[in-house]
Amino acid sequence: MRRFLTSLCTSFVCLIVMAQGWPSSYGGVMLQGFSWDSFDDSQWTVLEKKADDLSGYFDLVWVPQSGKAAAAKSMGYDPLYYFNQNSSFGTESELRSMITTFKNKHIGTIADVVINHHGTNNGWFGFPAEVYKGTTYQHQSTDVCANDDGGKAAEEARKKSVQLSRNNDEGEDWNGMRDLDHTSNNVQKIVKAYENYLLNDLGYAGFRYDMVKGFGAYHVGDYNTAANVKYSVGEYWDGNANTVRTWIDATGKRSAAFDFAFRYAVRDAINQNDWRVLSDTRTTGINVDNGAYRQYAVTFVENHDVQDRGTTSGYSPDPIRKDTLAANAYLLAMPGTPCVFYPHYLTYPKEIKAMIDARKLAGVTNTSSYQNYRSSKDHYANIVTGTNGKLLVVVGNNANQLSIPTSSYTKLLSGYHYAYYLANDAETPWIDKASGKYEVEVLKVRLTAVSTHVGAKLVYTTDGSTPTASSAQVASNTEISITEGEKTLKVALLADGVVGKIITRHYKVAAPVPFIPETIRVYVNTDEVNWNAYVNYHSWGGTHTATSWPGDRVTSKETVKGKTWFYKDYTLTKADDYVNFVFSIGTASNASDNQSLDVERVKKTSYFVISSTKDNGKFTVDNVTSTVTGIEGIKADVKQSRDNKYYYTLSGQRLNGKPSQCGIYIHNGKKIVIK
Q1: Percent of the chain scoring above 90 in pLDDT
Q2: Counting CB atoms within 10 angstroms of each CB, which of 37, 92, 435, 658 has the fewest?
């Protein structure tokens, strides 16, 4: 009996630990794997290909809402289906593949859970029915808050003679879709089934809850307890850190929250060109002002809601963009769980990965303590105590002019308006280049000894073997050369003849292969829709300037095996170039009545058929390129065959054949020597 009770208590403790909303002493870093309208860059297939690059740096990746939305092209914040996972970002099978690949690389995928409101596909209250594992799930009109849409829903309900919930919305109203009453047993049943599906069927690691101001916080606690989820973060959009803390408390501390106060403090420091804002008398973040809540602070400096959306009404460039690297340097050094914005990472991948290396080397976690070191208009510095050492972060216009005593600290990194230092008693080596791919002939890597031992040296290997005292040896701050190929660099501290801590980097080094612009042809067959005279090609994406709607009027035709195809040529100017399309007929004023869905990331000569089938009023498009393989005019991926033929000088000049002169050349993506 005692053994049974002990086992029962142990299981209960485990459940409580799992349901705490966010782990304590967590040293992981999250990536927001999308931005607004990132339909190209955030496709499941695109993100999956980045798994190797992200592994070891990002422990969690938050992805767009993955269910089929109400709009044909959607970021997912107009949810329509929970169990249909074919979205604007890819198919369910592609989603499952990405999640599995991430998991195999020790990356957890965070689902965007949008449950405050729900779309309909038949009037105001016609919710779709879904069947999952033999059970039918369907929201009803009685699941809609009584005061939804400022009373408009009630007016429609009277017209349709249907009943709404008797309860008003527990939080803020969200106009345009039906706000759900989370006190409804039916709503709770559906949400819990949905979250179980996300975690235990699709394989997600946790949840990001959208617009949690819209319903009672205790529901999040209830849902998370039912799901036994390890990672949960709510979007409580409020710059008042105390208000956010109140929400965390109301969940029973079953969820973390995004730290908007932290984001606004960094934004204002940059915008005002006054870094003293970071030590302002106002509350500057739930992670910095009360140690009890650092565990539940997911920090960030920019996201899809506050980013620059170009000419979109109501949006303007985020001041963060004036000093993106400094903002991320501060973010990645401070306690809390940092969430890096995808565009920032795409712009500065090597720099941000190096910052993460420094964070993890010091052992900074979400519950680390810190103290201010210096504060002025032109610089701000904090000392953050990690499990492995003290990390000193300096940001601001004069960050690199601040004098730091070398007797206490060693510089790890520096860049535009930021610098990282590590306390010498960390007793560790440091490598300034993050793991990853480098398109250079020779990669220069600086090795640094962080040690209290005067004259400490470094020993290293590049073949993955463990360094010993007899391995290659260099003084601190020495650059070594990493040659072409896949190399595993291991570096150890050598102090007083004793080999100490070892750190590792993995590099893929290859000389850049010159890209020769190539022309692709895009064919469109319109037999099913009877567009006989012309087709509008609206194009954008990659290096291509967007055409004015409805695009170029294309009349050129070609007959291939008895079918007539409109066609137009496009030039790809770099290796990752592509073109997106919408096909239509008509003028700017009416072409939207006769247009196709988006066709994305066309990178080679392709054949498309405009189908008579419509999705939300737009014609679907079938890519039939694979079925016409071998017909005249089609071009295979010419890059491979071209590379087999051509040689290039190191300056990028293409040669028609094998060179006769002695020298170094590029052939098949590799450097060769002609003697």
Answers
A1: 77
A2: 658
The verdict on 149 and 196 lying in the same domain is yes
Where residue 4 falls among pLDDT bands split at 50, 70, 90? Answer: very low
Residue 39 phi/psi, 5-degree rounding, is -65, -25
Pairing of strands 30-32, 60-62: parallel
Q: CA 271 to CA 490: how far, in whole Å? A: 41
Alpha carbons 395 and 325: distance in angstroms, whole number = 9
- In angstroms, the CA 210 to CA 206 distance is 13
Name the residue among 153, 135, 137 with its Cα closest to residue 188: 137
DSSP states of 193-225:
HHHHHIIIII---EEEES-GGGS-HHHHHHHHH
Given 426, 446, 465, which residue is the final one in a domain? Answer: 426
Which of 415, 428, 413, 436 is CA-nearest to residue 482? 436
Same domain, 598 and 531: yes
623 and 653 in a common domain: no
Tell me the pLDDT tens digit for each residue of 143-158.
999 999 999 999 999 9
Average pLDDT rounded to a whole number, residues 410-421: 96
Q: In whole numbers, what is the pLDDT of the chain averaged over residues?
A: 89
Say yes or no to pLDDT of 160 above 70.
Answer: yes
Which strand ranges, in their side-by-side order, compose the sheet holding 599-602?
Answer: 552-554, 535-540, 579-584, 599-602
Task: Read off the amino acid at residue 180.
Answer: L
- Alpha carbons 531 and 596: distance in angstroms, whole number: 12
Most distant CA pair in the chain, distance: 88
Q: How many domains does the chain have?
A: 5
User: What does the pLDDT read at residue 403?
Assistant: 95
Amino acid 147 reads N
380 with 276: CB under 8 angstroms? Answer: yes
Nearest to 112 by CA among 60, 188, 52: 60
Cα 468 from Cα 490, distance rounded (Å):
10
Co-location of 498 and 552 in the same domain:
no
Exposure string for 271-302, b = 16+ CB within 10 A, e = fewer: eeebbebbbeeebbbbbbbeeebbbbbbbbbb
Indicate whether 34 and 108 sit together in one domain: yes
| Boundary (domain end) residue, out of 486, 509, 532 | 509
- Residue 11's pLDDT is 41
Is the CB of residue 71 less than 8 Å from the CB of residue 42? no
Model confidence pLDDT, tens digit, residues 240-264: 999 999 999 999 999 999 999 999 9
CA 625 to centroid of chain Cα atoms = 31
Same structural domain for residues 192 and 150?
Answer: yes
220 and 146 housed in the same domain? yes
Q: Which two tokens stand for residue 473?
A: 């040896």
Nearest to 531 by CA among 564, 558, 580, 570: 564
Q: Are residues 384 and 503 in the same domain?
A: no
Residue 403: domain span: 369-426
How many Å apart are CA 384 and CA 203, to the nearest integer?
A: 34
Q: Residue 229: which CATH number?
A: 3.20.20.80
Answer positive or negative: Cα dihedral of 148, 151, 156, 158: positive
**Contact between 443 and 481 (Cβ < 8 Å):** yes
Could you tell me if 361 and 373 are in contact, meaning their C-beta atoms sit under 8 angstroms apart?
Answer: no
